[in-house]
Amino acid sequence: MAITRVWLDESEDECISCGLCSEVAPEVFEVPDKMIVIEGVDFSQYEEEIKEAVESCPTSVIKFETD
């Protein structure tokens, strides 16, 4: 199952801009003020990094969906 979508979900907690996601997957995430997903990224090339970023996020606000 390939990752098809990655987003910031602040419905329960808020991004604290720690930058951990951009350290784990700099090709996918940037943290200027809050985490953003870089547009046009082929998520299939970075699935392990995305999953690690999701698991490492201290506020659990990074979400992804698979097909």
Task: List the keywords.
single chain, 67 residues, alpha+beta, Alpha-Beta Plaits, two-stranded antiparallel ribbon, two-stranded antiparallel sheet, 2 helices, 22% helix, globular
Mean pLDDT figure: 96
Q: Please give the share of residues in helix.
A: 10-25%
First-residue to last-residue Cα separation: 6 Å
Q: In one word, what is the shape?
A: globular
- Structural class designation: alpha+beta
Number of helices: 2
Q: How many independent structural domains?
A: 1
CATH architecture designation: 2-Layer Sandwich
Q: Which class in CATH terms?
A: Alpha Beta
Determine the CATH topology. Answer: Alpha-Beta Plaits
Strand content: 15-25%
The total of beta strands comes to 4
Strand order, largest beta sheet: 1-4
String of helices and strands: EHEEHE
Can you put this structure into words, describing what you see?
The structure is a single chain. The protein is an alpha+beta fold and 67 residues long. The chain has a single domain (3-66), classed as Alpha-Beta Plaits. It is built from two helices and four strands; from the N terminus they run E-H-E-E-H-E. The protein has a two-stranded antiparallel ribbon with strand order 1-4. The protein is globular, with a radius of gyration of 11 Å. 21% of the residues are buried. The model has no long low-confidence stretch (mean pLDDT 96).
